[in-house]
Design brief:
single chain; alpha/beta; Rossmann fold; Arc Repressor Mutant, subunit A; 5 domains; 7-stranded parallel sheet; 6-stranded parallel sheet; 26 helices; 44% helix
Length: 637
């Protein structure tokens, strides 16, 4: 077994682990089950990727998000670590090749969706794999108390017990309440588990809520006063463009981003922002996955999120460099009414869910009992037009069908063109001699992508090939299609449209096994989360950081001193309060040395930030000093 510190240096280039990473990795390598609760940007993925490299075999990673899987695999491959992902949208041949490579090749990590575990082909092939660790990412999805429940996660424990019973498990998440943490351990059947929980405190982020009449004016004011890179979250695609135009009119460098844009355009906008060429990105929550820009100075939520979990995760993209940053919600009193409308619309009736499910089956011409894990290009506007449905109502119904495990909608799906050569080299050479018109194309494929293309799928660029052989993209694609029809190659064309997948074999819509009891429970849970979010934005009598920590189960937190509440409390304390506290500190220390924490207990909770500030002022001016036991001592007269 290789040493974790050596692997950390070799593949990641770091000399030291981040907080809790070493302890988690040591626990996993000792064969324990573990739950790692680390904040966004806290290095969760390293906690299973590195142990996978320490041992023979591969790590099986269960993840619900295609974009995250692809991002992780691309990053690992760039680091020289062999990894694959199987997700809805791959051809059967691509999946077959990947599974064979995981059995016979030196693959270290395989990412799959939880639904994939239930397929016969995966169950049969996984038994032949040498799996050294099971990693369950976004583990909060297993709990209906979480904010992103997926019922397919509930089947992970059975899969493990049946196929890999001796393999230990690590579950990972960034946001989970105490109730969700216990639910994860229970539902995954973690044995001898160790729970590693980093604090939710982000000491360098000042949280604030600005209650205003004019949101646009306040946004411009914030971006004018807080210099540096900014991220503005909104609820709708239309608003991303509208706000971007507003900022540009104010000569603030800005761009917009949402899942409805093409892949190339999304990448261009993202890269420009990450490189600092664009200062502000206005985006829906589609933006942020896999992005780790360290110098974001402010994250603004123009629209109030649905829950504190989502808010904390998005706000946590500020200040990852450790420097002072801000997380601001702009709130209008009319937002509460709008949020309640959104909430009601996002919980359609069971009858309407069945109607939409039937319409989807008709739209894609799917027979009852067929098409498990099949996928289709999906244009929701065309779908709704054909079946006389309102776009937003249909969208919410599809979301609920996904929450129940029947369908899955990926709005920002991108699948690059891939080619696999089906012949061995001697046969391919014979074909080239007999078919001279295809020779330049085949030579170009082999020159650019090498022998790895023989029996494996490799990403290609039709544009690059066309330039090389002095042809057009249209002709290159036609030739690739022709070779595909001749079964010389398998050509999987680029797809950049939203994808809708049927996770289970298609049901008779009238008998769709919707768990109405669970749906009602989830409605109440989500309603409570919304109420907690509204309490956060409306409550002006508590420390904002403290409210977030309390929600996630961290108790006894002293006021942060720099959120909007704490700063207002500081401003409200008059000079007479300042003099009174100073005199009381003087009086107490005249009696003898005192520990700072004992001294602050003498004051009201709201006064503690000012007491700490006064003690610092008095030590700086040599009125106070610390003795050898860390106690405060009044200066000698």
């Amino acid at each position: 077994m290789s040493q974790p510190s050596d692997i950390l240096k070799q593949y990641w280039g770091y000399d030291n682990f981040r907080h809790l990473q070493k302890e988690i990795i040591d626990s996993v390598l000792s064969g324990n089950d573990a739950l790692a609760l680390l904040p966004t940007g806290g290095g969760k993925s390293l906690c299973y990727q590195l142990p996978a490299l320490c041992k023979d075999g591969l790590c099986l990673v269960i993840s619900p998000l295609i974009a995250l899987m692809k991002d992780q695999v691309d990053q690992l491959n760039r680091q020289g670590i062999k990894a694959y992902a199987i997700y809805t949208g791959l051809t059967n041949r691509e999946i077959d090749i990947i599974l064979d490579n995981c059995i016979y090749g030196n693959i270290k990590l395989l990412y799959v969706s939880p639904e994939r575990l239930q397929t016969e082909i995966f169950s049969a092939r996984v038994r032949k794999m040498n799996i050294n660790l099971l990693a369950v990412d976004e583990a909060h999805c297993i709990s209906q108390w979480g904010y992103d429940f997926r019922p397919s996660y509930l089947k992970i424990a059975n899969f493990r017990n049946e196929h890999i019973p001796k393999v230990n498990t690590i579950a990972l998440t960034a946001t989970a309440t105490e109730k969700v943490v216990m639910d994860i351990c229970d539902k995954l059947e973690l044995e001898n588990q160790q729970i590693f929980k980093a604090s939710f405190v982000r000491e360098n982020i000042a949280f604030a809520v600005r209650k205003v009449e004019n949101k646009d004016k306040k946004l411009i004011e914030i971006l004018t006063n807080v210099k540096g890179t900014a991220l503005v979250y909104v609820r709708t695609r239309k608003r991303t463009k509208d706000l971007c135009d507003l900022l540009l009119r104010q000569r603030i460098s800005a761009d917009y981003y949402h899942a409805g844009l093409s892949h190339d355009l999304r990448m261009k906008k993202q890269e420009s922002w990450q490189a600092g060429q664009t200062r502000v990105i206005v985006a829906t929550n589609a933006f942020g996955m896999g992005i780790n820009k360290k110098d974001v100075r402010v994250v603004v939520h123009y629209d109030v999120p649905d829950n504190l979990e989502a808010y904390y995760q998005e706000a946590g993209r500020a200040g990852r460099d450790g420097r002072k940053a801000y997380a601001v919600i702009i709130y209008h009193e009319g937002d509460k009414h709008l949020l309640n409308i959104f909430f009601e619309n996002s919980h359609p009736s069971v009858e309407f869910m069945k109607r939409v499910y039937q319409a989807l089956a008709n739209y894609f011409k799917i027979a009852v009992g067929s098409n498990m894990l099949s996928y289709f290009d999906f244009d929701i506007s065309d779908f709704c037009h054909n079946f006389n449905l309102h776009n937003s109502e249909a969208y919410y119904a599809i979301q609920k069908l996904e929450e129940e495990g029947f369908t899955m909608l990926n709005e920002s799906f991108y699948h690059p063109s891939k080619v696999s050569i089906n012949l061995e080299k001697p046969e391919l050479y014979k074909f080239q001699i007999a078919n001279a018109s295809f020779d330049p194309l085949i030579k170009s494929l082999l020159r650019f992508y090498g022998g790895e293309m023989l029996g494996n799928f490799v990403r290609i660029s039709e544009n690059q090939i066309a330039r090389t052989i002095n042809s057009t993209v249209y002709k290159v694609k036609n030739q690739l299609d022709h070779l595909n029809n001749l079964k010389i190659i398998t050509y999987d064309k680029m797809r950049d449209k939203p994808q809708l997948a049927f996770i289970t074999p298609r049901f008779d819509a009238s008998k769709l096994p919707i768990d109405t009891e669970r749906i009602n429970e989830r409605r109440e849970i989500q309603k409570n989360k919304l109420e907690a979010m509204l309490n956060y934005v409306e409550n002006q009598s508590q420390c904002k950081t403290g409210m977030i920590l309390e929600y996630f189960g961290e108790k006894n937190f002293e006021d942060c001193g720099h959120c909007d509440y704490c700063l207002e409390r500081k401003r409200s304390l008059s000079k007479s309060d300042h003099d009174r506290i100073r005199e009381m500190v003087h009086y107490e220390l005249k009696k003898g040395p005192r520990l700072p924490e004992d001294l602050t207990k003498l004051f009201g909770h709201h006064e503690i930030p000012l007491v700490d500030e006064i003690i610092r002022e008095m030590t700086d001016s040599d009125d106070l000093k610390y003795d050898g036991m860390g106690r405060l001592v009044w200066k000698v007269e």
